[in-house]
Amino acid sequence: MSLLVVGLSHRSAPVSVLERAALSADAQMKLLQDTVAAEPATEAAVLATCNRIELYADVDKFHAGVAELSTLLAQHSGVGLEELTPYLYVHYEDRAVHHLFSVACGLDSMVVGEGQILGQIKDSLARAQDLHTAGKLLNDLFQQALRVGKRAHSETGIDRAGQSLVTFGLEQLAAGGDVRDWAAGRTALVIGAGSMSSLAAATLARAGVAEIVVANRTFERAERLAEILAEGDDTGTVTARAVRMDAVAAELTRADVVVSCTGATGLVLTAEAVAQAVEGRTGAPAAEITGTPRTTAQAKAPLASAGPGDDNCPLDLSAVQPGFSLMGEAAVAGMDAATLEQHAAWVAGGTVDRRDRRTPETDAELITALAATAATVGRIPERRKPEPVAERPAPFVFLLDLAMPRDIDAAVHRLAGVRLVDIESLAEASADAPMAADVDQVRRIVSDEVAAFGAAQRAAHITPTVVALRTMAADVVAGEIARLDGRLPDLDERQRGEIRQAVHRVVDKLLHAPTVRVKQLAAEPGGAGYADALRTLFDLDPETVAAVSRAGDSTDTKDRPA
After folding, report:
1. Is the bond preceding residue 405 a cis peptide, omega within 30 degrees?
2. Which residues contact residue 109 at a Cβ distance below 8 angstroms, ignoring those fewer than 6 apart?
């Protein structure tokens, strides 16, 4: 059996694809169960974060394993296999180990060096253990990955190379200024009470916000997080309270900073909701970024809404679910640049030069593509176009969306007085982030740990064969001693003991050098064949070796990740 990982991340796929491929908790559980039920795999674990989706498995066939894991990822993510395949990467055996260890150290994170990934790896292993999809290989692998990650953070300065995604996001909201100065005295609304939201709330509390409001679908979890925040505040300057999700609209009108990270599959905050909150704060209708104020009627309507034929809209939106956005988007599958520009011009309220208009057939294709996208993802996300800083008024509402798929409609960034930072903009900002010198040291740690892990796994692979050989030798000695007892019944017990010890010493000395040497050779790359050679030379029963291996697996302690 061999380790295989198939996945996609912010390094291989655009955020729009990652967003669509995001797996809910239920989907992750079903994916694990279906993977171990498939023929090539016996173990499976899923590592799903806001910027990666990876499926780890112990497989007996490489090509069949890649095909099966890729198909299962496509089925459970809802993204077609043909569309998903160009963004997938595959790592096998030592390369797969190297990849996970690099991930655990934060080398593959959007923000290099961030330590939150360790908690996510820990959760991934716990989930696989709960579902009994993690056997000896994946338990050993993920436990060691956690140790390697902790070693990297304790022995190097990798923490200086990056921060958590939350910290990085807050720095982007502060636009390069000091986060503490920016956050001091503000009111924060945190939507969600999971690990990322809890980290965001704690970070905001340390940064000096005056009040934190926690909203969650399960009110008890929101209350618990608020209690923890209050208990952890030694200064007495932070007020924390919990509200139900139906109170979010009212809290939006008070909040200066909003952080959202939920497991919702649809939008949690629509552009309309944020526009109404802005109007509630200012008493005036929210203005578009172009500087044209919206009328009260426009402010009370969704930012993007249209019916059949409205202003020559190329799409009938009457049946589209709430939260659909028409604000253009390069992520719309199947659209070329010219078509996108045509649609963007319509969205902006401008006119398209008749000389540049496409044929009726192309317009029909546009309608089909838009309708297909609406049916698949429920909306067309916002297409981002950089705006000159001078044209944007200073923001007074700051939104941080850490969810995948996104919680906050990207069309919000068109509202004056609002600054939105989400996974997509964080990916763009992190691409230019400087790398610390400690990264090289972490890479050396990873390389050393991969070599050690591989050697240990290869050595462990031959152990059942060595045990079976020694068991066979012990059986031979026992048989010969019994035969001797029958032929020499007059020997006293002392004489029999001396003979038994002498025979055992001879056998042990004969087996010691070859068994020690074969373990050393098996630990080297390509050493797996020594176990086969040993079984052949000593005519060992394969079923006996397999029984020793099964016994070893059954006695392994499956500890929870530390």
Report:
1. yes
2. 51, 103, 117, 162, 165
